[in-house]
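Dear support,

I submitted the protein below through the web form. The confirmation email said the job was done, but the results page showed an empty box. After a refresh the structure appeared. I'm attaching both so you can tell me whether what I see now is the final result or a partial one.
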Amino acid sequence: MQKNAPNTSKTAELFGYPDYEFDFVKQKKQEKLNQMVAVNRFGFSELPPLPGTKTEVENISTSLRTNAWKINLFTEAKASEQQLKKVNSPKVLHIATHGFFLKDVMDNEDETILGFEASKLKLNPLLRSGIMMAGASVVARDTLATEFEQDGIFTAYEASLLNLSNTDLVVLSACETGLGVDLNNQGVFGLQRAFYIAGAKNLIMSLWVVDDDATQILMSEFYKEWALNPAKENISKSFKKAQAEVRKKYPHPYYWGAFTLLGN
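What the results page shows now:
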């Protein structure tokens, strides 16, 4: 993979607060069902909304716009899998939503897991991790349909097909986005590998289930600092300062240590 020069365009694509209940077929939000009724074919119950991610991406947008960045902000129904696939090598790609990682696929005897054929998941580790986008809950409840134009589940495999050849930073503000399948002598396969394949230079990802409020503070503080001088060499310094801000309110490492910076 060819590494391009640092992107000086100051462009950012921000995704957050997806509307998991938006029905793209009917083009409207579905009524909330009783959670006991709505346990779905993907094996999880309703995806709770993440109001902190709305505040997070709006704060980031404000920080970047103040420093003359060009921003595309996608929330609610617009924070869709289809829109994410249109991303074309911005300097920054930030996604704030639910994430998933399937650990025990090889021992699972079910024919389908997370709506995918289990055999495909076992053959391709990049299908075992991903993030949830708009419409994910609606598709998950449709136990009869088998094909969707967009199912709201953006897998690591799909991430590997993005064009991020001139993207300096990808931030996955979601749970367990840094995890993956460790294949002998081949490294870890998951979202981390996928976004590197797509061309991203640096990644900020999580290693465990994260707290919504602490994550909002971390990300808001990071961009507030980094937007002042968005060079690649300043990413690490800005990230450490943001972690220090989180520690003032949440001293335990669970809150400030979940995210890690990976890159060159």
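Response: this is the final, complete result; the empty box was a page-load delay. Residues 226 and 237 are 8 Å apart (CA to CA).
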